[in-house]
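Could you join me in thinking about how sequence relates to backbone shape in a protein? To get us started, please write out a protein record for me. Would you write everything just below, so we can both look at the same thing?
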Amino acid sequence: MFQVAQWSDAEWDRALDKVVIWTGNDHSVGVWTPHNYSGWARLKELDGWSHLRLVDDTDTPIAQVLVKRKGSVAVAYAPGGFLAARHIEAREFVSFLRRETGAAFVYARIHMLTPTKFFNPDMHALGWAPVSKRLGAAESLKMRLDHPVEERRAALSFNWRRNLKRCEQHENVITIESNPNAEEIVRLHEELESLKGEHVNTWESSLPHVQIAIKHFGSRLVVAKCVNEQGVLRAIRGAVVTGGCAFDVLAATTYEGRKHYASHGTMWALANELACRGVVRYDLGGVDPVGNRGVYDFKHGTGAMEITYGGEYDAAFPAIARRAASMLAVRFR
C-alpha cells in the first residue's frame, strides 16, 4: 500500500537520497533521474501541475506524481516512474488517484526512467499498457565515472579525443558554475533553436523555468560553462546529481563554439567535476539513434554504454477511454 507524504521539499529529497535501486560489488546506485526530486515539481508548477508524493508504510518514497485537474477529469503523470522496485498494479494506482483527486475520470501515465537492468517488472501483468505515443526517449547512454580520469580519457573514441584536444588548444576557458546565470542559459538555448531553424517550447528556453530549476535544485545542479578569452559564451552543459547518479538536463553550444569544439570541453569538464563529487553513473539524458543521429554519435563517442529505460505505460478509468487519452498525451508536458 501507499499514501501521500506530507513532507517538506527538503524532507522528500533527503528520503530520495536514501533510496537504493541496485547494489553492486563496490557501490550503490540510488534514484536515477531528477524527475522525482522536489526541484522538478516546483519547475512544473509553472505549467499548472500540482504534485502528490507517495510513500509506502515504511516511509520509503515510491513516486512523485504530477497532477492536473479540470472539472471531473484528472491527469496524473509520474515522469520518473516508480522507485525502490515497487510493483504497483494499474487498477490500484488509478483507484488511489480517483480518491485523492475526487475526479470521475482519471488518466495515469508513468515513465519508468530506471534502466531495465536495475528494475524491470512485468508491467503488462500489473495491468499497465504501453503508450501509443511516447513523451520521452526509450534509450540512453551512461558514462561510468568510477574510473581514473586517464582510463576514462582512453575510453573516448578517436574522433572525440581528437576534438577534445582541439578544444584544449583553442581559446576556450571552461569553468564550473556554482551559481549559473539563468539569462545566459536561456539566451544560449534560444540561439541554438535559431541556429536549427526551429522553436521548441522547452523549459530550458524559458527564463522563469530556468530560474526555478537553479533555485530549487540548488547545489544538485552542476553546470560547466565555456567562454572565449573575451568572455563571450560559447557553450554550457548541466546535470542534476541524484545520489550516486547524475542526469543530463542542459546542453547548448553557439555556432562559434561548435567551430572551437566547446561542446567537447564542457562535457568533459562536467564529467570530471561529477566524478570528483562521488557520482558513479552519468546518464546522458536520452538518445534517438535514428531521429537525431548527430547527438547520439556525440554522446556515444564519450565511451558511454547504451541502456534501455523501462518505458512509458498508462492506464485510465474508465479503461475504455485510455487509448484516446494516450493519443492526446503530448499536451500533458
Remarks:
- The chain has a mean pLDDT of 89.
- Residues 43 and 213 are 6 Å apart (CA to CA).
- The chain has eleven helices and 15 strands.
- The longest strand covers residues 305-317.
